[in-house]
Amino acid sequence: MNQINGLLMSGDLPVALIEKNQLKILRSDCLPYYFRRNGDLLTWIQSRAIDGDRVHSRLLKKALQLQRKDELSTTMAVRAACITDNYWIKLDTDTLTYEDIRFKTDTYSDLALAGDLEVFSQRLDPRSSHTPELTNIGSFEKGWKLVDGVWWLSKQGSPEQLFSEFFCAQLGRFLGMDMAVYRLKEDYIMSEDFTKQEMNFEPAAALIGDQTEDYTLNYQTLKNLNPDCGRQYLDLLYLDAIVRNPDRHEMNYGILRSRTTGKVLGMAPNFDNNLSLIAMGYPRNLDRSQDRLIDAFREFLIQNQIEYNPPQFTESVLRDIMESIPISVNASEIITFLMNGQAAFVQACGNKY
Question: What is the C-alpha to C-alpha distance for residues 48 and 311, in angstroms, rounded to an integer?
Fold first, then answer.
C-alpha cells in the first residue's frame, strides 16, 4: 500500500482529506504538528510502526500472519491507530468509525513484552488481531496491558533499569513535577496511559524534528505554544541533569492536546527514565565535578537569562523513596551522587537561577 486515499482522523473528527498521499487540510486546529511542518504522510505513518529490530516484534508479526512486514504495511494493518493519540487513517473503502478502531483487547501483550508463545496455541477471535502492539514504538521489549479498563504500558528491563525508572518518577513527583504513574512488577515496570484515550500526545519530533539538544529552540517553541510548557520543560531538563538521564530524545517527551479542539493542554507527564541513574552501572564521578548535563542546562539558563529556582530534596527524602522500592541497591552511593548533583547545580548557577 504505497498510495493512500481517505481521511486523516482524530477520533471521529476528519482532520484532512488524503488524495494520493497528499493532504488537503480540513481542520488546521486539530492537525498533527508534524504536518504543520510540511511533513510527509508516508513518513509519519512509518514512524508509528513497532521497531522491527525487536525480537518480539518479529514473533508478533508471525503470530498475526502479516503478509507484508514493512513499516508502512505494519502500521496500516491497524489503520495507523495507537494508544497514545486518537489519530488514524480512514481509507476511502472503509465504513469504520473510531469505536471500531479503538483498541479493546490486549491479547498479544505478553508476546510483545516477554515472548510468551501461548497465542500460537490458541484459536483466537479475528477481532483480537486489532492490536496496539503494531504501533507500540521504542527499542525495549514492551506490551500494552488493559487493567480494569485502563491501558498500562509494560516494559522489560534489568533490576537497575526498573529501579531507576521508578525512583525518578517518585523523586520528580516529590519535587512537584508532573510524572507518569508507574507500578513495579517482578521483572517489568508498568506506566499508565496518560492520554486516557481522550487526548493526543504529540512528541517533540512533531514540533522541532530531531533537534533535541537545542534547548533554546525547544524552550521557545514550547513556551510559545503554552506558557506552562516552558516551565515544565525546564523541570524536565533539571531532573534529567540531576539523575543523569542522557536518553532524552525527540520521541520521549512532548505535549498533550485536546482531540476535538487541538488546544495545547500542557506538557505530557515526564516518562521514560529507564536509562538514567544506575541503569547502565553506578556512576564513577560521584562528586559531579565535571557533569556535562548539569553544565549544559546551566549554560542554557545563563545564555537565555532564564530565572529558574530548582526544587530541592534532602537525603532523608532520597532514603525514604529508596526504601519504598523492593530492589536492592547501593543507597549510599546513589544518595551521594544525587546530593552532590543538586549542590553542583546550585553552586554553578548561584542564587539568581
Answer: 35
Residue 290 near residue 340, CB atoms below 8 Å: no
The strands making up 188-192's β-sheet, listed across from edge to edge, are: 142-147, 150-156, 188-192, 182-184
Grid cell listed for 242: 540531576
Tens digits of residue pLDDT in 244-283: 999 999 999 999 999 999 999 999 999 999 999 999 999 9
Count the neighbouring beta carbons within 10 Å of the beta carbon of residue 316.
9
The number of helix segments (H) and strand segments (E) in the chain equals: 13, 11
Whole-Å CA distances, 351 to 107, 238, 303, 308, 346: 54, 16, 16, 10, 7
Rounded to whole angstroms, the Cα distance separating 94 from 17 reads: 14
What is the C-alpha separation between 163 and 100, in angstroms, rounded? 38
326 sits in which H/E element: none
Indicate if the alpha-carbon torsion angle 218, 222, 225, 231 is positive or negative: negative
d(CA 214, CA 66) in angstroms, rounded, equals 40
Q: Is 328 strand, coil or helix?
A: coil
pLDDT digits (tens, 9 = 90+) for 149-206: 999 999 999 999 999 999 999 999 999 999 999 999 988 999 999 999 899 999 999 9
Give mean pLDDT, residues 287-314: 93
CA gap 318, 314 in Å, rounded: 7
Stated as kind and residue range, the H or E segment containing 10 is: strand 6-10
Q: What is the largest CA-CA distance in the chain?
A: 65
| 233, three cell numbers | 520543560
Cut 0.90: pTM above it? yes
pLDDT band at residue 347 using 50, 70 and 90 as cut-offs: confident
In sequence order, what are the residues at sequence separation of 6 or more whose Cβ sits closer than 8 angstroms to the Cβ of residue 280? 160
Give burial (CB, 10 Å; 0-12/13-18/19+) of 127: exposed
Closest CA to 56 of 106, 107, 114, 124: 114
